[in-house]
Amino acid sequence: MSVLTNGGFLFMDNHFLQHLTAVGREIAEKTYERHCFFTNQLVAMEIDFAAAEENACRLEHAISDKSFRALKEKPALSAKR
Question: Can you give the pTM of this predicted structure?
Fold first, then answer.
């Protein structure tokens, strides 16, 4: 929590409740969007939900903004063999 607080993503109020800053909320919403996207894509490919969630947790942090936008905007391509 100190990393998030020191990074300006989180603050604690007088009642010791934690709140996201505007920047923290923006990053959290972006990460959640990616998580949902990857989970849904993997489930659609018949990956079981637990595995899809686990993999989505990794993918959401590893992909660049540019690549994620491209994935969202274009339909999936079949691999040609």
Answer: 0.80
Nearest to 56 by CA among 66, 24, 45: 45
pLDDT in tens, 17-58: 999 999 999 999 999 999 999 999 999 999 999 999 999 999
Please give the torsion angle defined by the CA atoms of residues 20, 26, 30 and 35, in that order, rounded to the nearest 10 degrees: 10
Cα gap 51→32, rounded to integer Å: 17
> Which token pair is 49?
């939900």
Joined together, the tokens standing for residue 62 give 């590893």
Q: What's the gap between Cα 30 and its chain centre?
A: 6
